Hints:
The protein is mainly alpha-helical.
Amino acid sequence: MTKEKSLRQFIIESNRTYIDFLKRISNEKILATFKKVAMTYSHYYHVYIIATPKTLLKGFSVETEHAATVDGNIIKICRIVLDHLSEDPKYYNKLEKIMPDT
Length: 102
């Protein structure tokens, strides 16, 4: 196995571990984390207020693909979601139409 291939495999396995961990977190805890982020970083507050819980959870589910990059940090994943929603409140709806399996 080449170094590149073993590194790629390590990244895939690490991401899978983080995603498994993140799937065990309750929706209530995820939504509470969104609220905490919105209260801490005021530029996210307006996005948090207009986003539905369903949209926030959908975004969180999609953005867990970055779990290894952010070391499974729930706050950073919530910030990624809120960044996307601040650019386009319909971001995850549009993404779902383009990529139905997300």
